[in-house]
Design goal:
TIM Barrel, eight-stranded parallel barrel, two-stranded antiparallel sheet, 12 strands, globular
Amino acid sequence: MNTSLIKLADKLATTNTLSDEEMTTLLKYRNKEITEYIFSQAIKIKEKFYNKKIFIRGTIELSNYCKNDCYYCGLQRSNRFIARFRLDENDIMKYCLDGYDKGIRTFVLTSGDDYYFTENKVASIISMIKSSFPECSVQLCLGERPASSYKKWFEAGATRYLLWHETANDSHFKKIHPADMSLLKRKQALWQLKETGYQVGSGFMVGTPYQTVADVVEDLAFIKILDPQIVHISPFLPTSHTRFEQERSGNGDMTLYLMGIVRLMLPRVLLTADPALENVMPDARRKSFAAGVNEVFASLAPDEVKNYFNVYNKRHNIKNCSGDDVTRMQKKIEESGNTVAVGTGDYIYAPKEENIYGQVYRIMRP
């Protein structure tokens, strides 16, 4: 076994940080032995804070309309080959009730950047959910919005917000997004969300066109600085009717490897396994539990809704990518030797003076 790689992994586990040069080495010389070693350390750290608990988040796809034209996404506004939909409040509450009866205690409202769901409309939906299910958490994934919207939704009862930075390198960002989108604006939105008081989620794709090892190192460095409560890493999947439809999918093994690294960087993080993983390797989310993952998504909407939410196209195995039935996901967790967590599964904040693996953690609003 390469002892220099082991030393880097140990340093990351004890100090939670590496230099860019050290992280580059850890990525460039990945092999089976170092992967298994990092996974073993990631599991120890995850279980220190969360034991064997895996949290299931129930997603509700509100809409597949989007004002943006991201080059890789099937929901891009210029895609004329998909049928568009929007849910109404009755559907949303029905799916929440169905999920609640199955044990779901976190509802994730997700959509394209669809301004039909205005600041007031979203606040009203959050209030309805909190009124009917007061012990449940509401997580939002609604794209970039004004700071006033983030504040209003937080006051209405939403406590988490997921907004991928997608790539932390500005040059790379411009290669996979149109000119009217800005990485600086995306990063500013993430800091606004943190300042508002949300448990903030961010993340990036693995294997996007033009991505280099240096880009991934920059992604990890940005995540370290942002210090989000939730990290979401997903493999890139090519989608029909997009600019990158003929490109190769991202590597599933590298995606899992990066999850393990993030667990060593941010010991208390809620680390998410995306359904897209199932499209690049068999039974991927069960395997992700060995990399330190401790939360998964299960779609609460019926198939006719999920099949329209084509972030990733049906030319791949969309039946797994579109989300899992809650019961099926519970079975995967139990078969892996883990435990389906009960409750909202909030991020565990460090006591003010507690020193974790040599690093004093900042206190954020619980």
